[in-house]
Amino acid sequence: MTTSEYVIDVKDLTKRFGEKMAVENVTFNTKRSEVFGFLGPNGAGKTTTIKMLTTLLPPTSGTASVLGFDLKTQGRKIRERIGVVQQQDSFDQGLNVETSMEVYGLIWDVPKKLRRDRIDELIERFGMHDFRKLATLDLSAGQRRRLQVAREFIHDMDLLFLDEPTVGLDPIVRRNVLDYIKDKVKDGLTIFFTTHILEEAEYLCDRIAVINQGRIIQIDTPGNLKRRFGSAKAVEFNLQEESPPGFVENISSQESISSLTYDKSTKTYRTTTSRPELVIPEIYRIADRFRLTISSIFIAQATLEDAFINMVTEDDKETKGRETG
Ligand SMILES: Nc1ncnc2c1ncn2[C@@H]1O[C@H](COP(=O)(O)OP(=O)(O)O)[C@@H](O)[C@H]1O
Ligand SMILES: [Mg+2]
Questions:
Q1: What is the pTM of this model?
Q2: Is the pLDDT of residue 297 over 50?
Q3: Pairing between β-strand 82-85 and β-strand 159-163 as defined by DSSP bridges
Q4: Chain-centre distance of CA 123, in angstroms?
Q5: What domains, with CATH codes, occur in the chain?
């Protein structure tokens, strides 16, 4: 490699669309054979980051090298050695699944024999036998997603970008796809992977960057994220009555409370905190003001999902505070 020992090396990468800061001073690096995850809610800046790193979109500022090549000046070299699975699918609607894969192999100049072998293997591994002769136009959303991911593996690459590859897949297919990706990583492939599903990031990623509103708010291993944020507690409660308008918002806006969610099926309110002893009296106080009766309240162990939501909502509050104050 020429400019960096890292497969992806990004410093202060920024993308602005007019007034909108889609990606702001993002800095990270990934090593060879690492699965690096970008985890964040809708609109966080995941796709925009991928578009920049795959040379589809020029950054507003910042620097990046990909596979040792400079993003600004060596885009062609980068494109030759990466794979990209974009968020939207992008194949010729007229072809059937097998032909579509065949054409993709041709575009990448994969020799005929190798191409055929790989297509057979991919159809097998991605469970696409039943619809291999179907026009891509007639595929279900999940089948299209599978084809989109599978065909990328027809060609050789050193680095693969996957933008929410498992959206629309059922749990078994999803697991198959993730396990296939894991196998490729064992063979030396490096993966940049985006998702808004925490469990998936945890299953696949060596390190996770949590991104919110264009900024990275944490980078760590799934295990460390769990240790650092998983020790939080969740406070759950039920009310005797339906809550009136404004109640949830009122609780969520409290300084000591990150956000309040409501589960309709169990009629349970839930919030995450490191200080339940402060939060519980606060909940009683607000309920009282709304003339509501709390029928039960208890403290539970927070999950990593809680921790993630917590991280993001705290960050949103901070951002708001900075903008208004
Ligand atoms: N071409 C564009 N013009 C204006 N705003 C854009 C454009 N592309 C993305 N955005 C905005 O940038 C933010 C980040 O978008 P995106 O990277 O697609 O988020 P994610 O993939 O994490 O859901 C969003 O607020 C989105 O609306
Ligand atoms: Mg996206």
A1: 0.83
A2: yes
A3: parallel
A4: 25
A5: 8-220 (3.40.50.300), 228-324 (3.30.70.100)
